[in-house]
Amino acid sequence: MSSISSVVSINAQYTIYSAAKGALTRNLACEWAKDNIRVNAVAPWSIRTPLTEHLLDDEIIRKEVVNRTPMKRFGEPGEVSSVVAFLCFPAPGFLTGQVICIDGGMSVNGFSMG
């Protein structure tokens, strides 16, 4: 598991955390490829879980998340777990070193006024 902050800047206070999340995936993929071990990560944005319920209750945060997300909603847990399950199958056998954003388009949205 990674974080969307490994791909886009979310909070300037988390620079080291953000850099490490993405770099570790890519470096381990290169290091372990010789042993036929694939290393990929999923990077969720705002997913509706018990840990994010307080965000849904805060109108300012909820509006900011929706404004930054082209799909205009929080993600659902099943939308993350299905990607994780896919990565466990043999089908993506040539996929390694990737950070897969599960973010409703947030990481490619750029600056948006709503």
Describe the structure.
There is one protein chain. The protein is mostly helical. Helix content is 39%, strand content 7%. It is built from four helices and two strands. The protein has helices spanning 15-32, 53-57, 59-68, 77-88, and strands spanning 41-44, 99-102. It has a two-stranded parallel sheet. The radius of gyration is 15 Å and the shape is globular.
List the helices and strands and how they pair.
Blueprint: H1 15-32, E1 41-44, H2 53-57, H3 59-68, H4 77-88, E2 99-102
Parallel strand pairs: 1-2
Task: Name some characteristics of this structure.
114 residues, mainly alpha, two-stranded parallel ribbon, 4 helices, globular
Question: What is the compact description of this entry?
Answer:
The chain is mostly helical and 114 residues long.
Low-confidence stretches: none
Share of helix among residues? 25-40%
Q: N- to C-terminal separation?
A: 29 Å
Form type: globular
Strand order of the largest sheet: 1-2
Write the element-wise H/E pattern from the N-terminal end onward: HEHHHE
The quaternary structure here is single chain
Number of strands: 2
Largest sheet: 2 strands, parallel
Mean pLDDT equals: 88
The class by helix and strand makeup works out as mainly alpha
Estimate what percentage of residues fall within beta strands.
5-15%
Number of helices: 4
